[in-house]
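subagent[fold] <- orchestrator: predict structure for attached chain, return tokens only, no commentary.
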Amino acid sequence: MLRCVPKAALALALPCLAAAALAQTTRPFPATALRGSLQVTQPPDVLLNGEAERLSPGARIRGTNNLLQLSGSLVGQNLLVHYTREPSGLVHDVWILTPEEAARKPWPTTADEARRWEFNPAAQTWTRR
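subagent[fold] -> orchestrator:
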């Protein structure tokens, strides 16, 4: 019986260790991700940087824990996000930023800035050229 106790303790500890390891990883954002302020008004309608926009039919919103969030649960909240657009111009991928991610500056807020700046995907940083 005593041989089972360490296995049981290990089985209980593994999820905690996995959660701690996940919390320490940085989320990789694509070079096409822009920073903005998002407010979900009436899904799929949103305000992005104060302008009326629309989420794409397959839009994904990831919370600070990187789990998917339903747009309806975010109605009325002002969120600092990184986002990408699909080819038709609709907002497609959204990541709600953690305080550490929000502190990474500069980050482009327009496609024109992203074209003029240089992105380091390994460090997840932008530099102005």
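orchestrator: received. Logging for downstream: The chain has a mean pLDDT of 88. The radius of gyration is 19 Å.
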